[in-house]
Amino acid sequence: MSLPPYAQLLGVAVEERDDAPPLIVMPFGDDVLGRPGFLHGGAIAGLLEIAAIAALRHALAGDGGGRIKPIGVTIDFMRGGREKPTQAQGKVTRLGTRVANVDAVAWQDDPARPIARAQMNYLVVRD
Amino acid sequence: MSGFDIRRFTARGFGGHIGRLGLTFHDSGPDWVALALPYAEDQIGDPATSVIASGPIVTMMDTATSLAVWVRLGRFVPQATLDLRVDYLRPAVPGRTVIGRGECVKLTRSVAFVRGIAHDGDADDPLAQVAGTFMLMDSWS
Questions:
Q1: Number of domains forming the structure of chain A
Q2: Scanning A24, A40, B63, B124, which has the fewest C-beta atoms within 10 Å of its C-beta?
Q3: Do B42 and A5 touch (CB under 8 A)?
């Protein structure tokens, strides 16, 4: 999977998974820092959106392909992001002919203790 | 007169992620703050169109709305974003600076309610609208 410049700005890496959406990993660093010692919420949101798009592309690849356009996102921030790597994974909850609903979750140590989650809706333009 | 001086607070620019994106102070009022996000090729989300990613817009609106909370409150209080909703009304035009205007609509003892828009030159033709809430970390009344 090729990453756009913004994903490189965040410093994320993609770990492809067999039969599952890719895992996206973002290292901690000054470029994603918010208040001292914590990730900026916007960087977490960017990571979640990259994970959601990766999951949707993964699902579309097995379903005829298509281009996607973001409609909207709702992000819940549950815990501060500390000075350590953050992982995120998306999950396509519905892939229709025109609209896709995607959830994404971000965590640091334990997937059961997420630091943030996002619900995203995308317009799908079928090839 | 607000006891939180937004111009002084932002005079030296931003560090961290906000600084990395090149966000700068643009304008402010009694309960709102506007920031500017200059176009940058390293923020492109779709290389086929050169349109910037949505992430920098979220960062700008999260920051502008949280600054608006301090402006309306009149002082600095630690706060954390509880939730943020962003509707992407249209893509930003490549090459244009995006302006993000965040407004604090309501303050309670522990929660601040915010909203805002982002545009790239014409405020009547916004590219995103947002609504969100912040938790205020200590009592301020």
A1: 1
A2: B124
A3: yes
